[in-house]
Amino acid sequence: MTSKTPTSTFPDSAAQASSRTDESGWFDFDYALLHVVPHVHVGSSQVVGVVLHSRTSGFIGIRFAIDDAKLHAQWPSLDIELVARELDALRSIAHGGKEAGAIGLLPPSERFHWMTAPRSAVVQPSDVHAGRTQDAESSLLELFARIVGSPI
After folding, report:
1. Do residues 84 and 90 touch, judged by C-beta distance below 8 A?
2. Domain ranges, ordered by start, for the chain
3. 49 near 149, Cβ under 8 Å?
4. Quick one: pLDDT at residue 22?
5. Number of H helices, E strands in the chain
6. For residues 78 and 60, what is the distance between their CA atoms, to the nearest angstrom?
7. Distances in Å between the alpha carbon of 76 and those of 47, 62, 83, 99?
């Protein structure tokens, strides 16, 4: 079974986003790739998602796709349900709120930094990269399509 997970995007509010742009309409953003790394000692991984945050636009979003067949072809014993739970937890943290626990109550920038901190888990973030955009959500979708390879 191959599952595709829709984009989750969480701007603070449209009013806040429009009030924090510079005169040119461009926003800075940071993003990280989400890798499935079942065996750290082997060093192989597969990119399954992207998390993007733009403090100035008030945007935090995550998009991922779990391709069961592709993951099982590389790691036959991989627990896909564990991968799905870890990615769902990251989506919940990006969304924020008490449902995501204590981390979900932090401001978006702190949640992003928590999500992109190095960790020993099956789902691991890449280093953080930067960019500029006029539309953070579109940039998230474009990065996802280009890097993960799934259609927008």
Report:
1. no
2. 3-148
3. no
4. 59
5. 6, 7
6. 29
7. 17, 26, 14, 33
The amino acid present at 99, given as its one-letter code, is: E
Residue 87's DSSP bridge partners are: none
Structure tokens belonging to residue 1: 């079974």
AA letter at 141: L
Question: CA-based angle 36:87:46, to the nearest 5?
Answer: 20
- CB count within 10 Å of CB 34 equals 26
DSSP-based three-state secondary structure for 27: strand
Q: Which residues lie below 8 Å from residue 56, measured CB to CB, with a gap of 6+?
A: 20, 21, 22, 27, 28
pTM: 0.84
Q: Which residues of the chain have pLDDT under 70?
A: 1-23, 150-152
